[in-house]
Amino acid sequence: MMSMNEQEIYEDKVMEWIEDHFVMNEVEMEDYPFFLHGKLIRDKQGETMVVFWCVIYGRVDYRFQDA
With a threshold of 0.85, does the pTM exceed it? Predict the structure, then answer.
């Protein structure tokens, strides 16, 4: 089980990755609880992806919407 400090660290890493890869006022973001610290990102064209913390690889990971 993760401590609160670990959870905050992973949440911060996910948010940092998102901020590094997107212009924040050009996307919509909402929590996506099906993945650890998951965030659903939607751009102006309606394309979506999920960004989350991967416990297997110990890093931020993402998945694009299936076409």
Answer: yes
